[in-house]
Amino acid sequence: MYAWASPDYMLDHMSFEQIVMYYDYGLEQEEIKSNILVGRLAVGLFGAKEKPKAKVTEEKPDRKAFQNAYGNRIKRPEGGAT
């Protein structure tokens, strides 16, 4: 998985539990990568329907509510906007 993780290095510098943990994390990462690849292939080859991505809303924060909740705790530089 990593170039530095040769079997000799791992046996010399890591405990057995660390080696097993490293192996498990590596397998988990490979499973995630394969699931992503299979999903992309399904979309590309078979036209599988994808969930639409969440749209960014154009909502602006409510300044008055924010000021009421945090007004006296906001730190501003001297001469800063109110």
UniProtKB/TrEMBL annotation:
Residues 54-65 have a biased composition (Basic and acidic residues). This is Uncharacterized protein. It comes from Cohnella herbarum. Residues 54-82 are annotated as: Disordered.
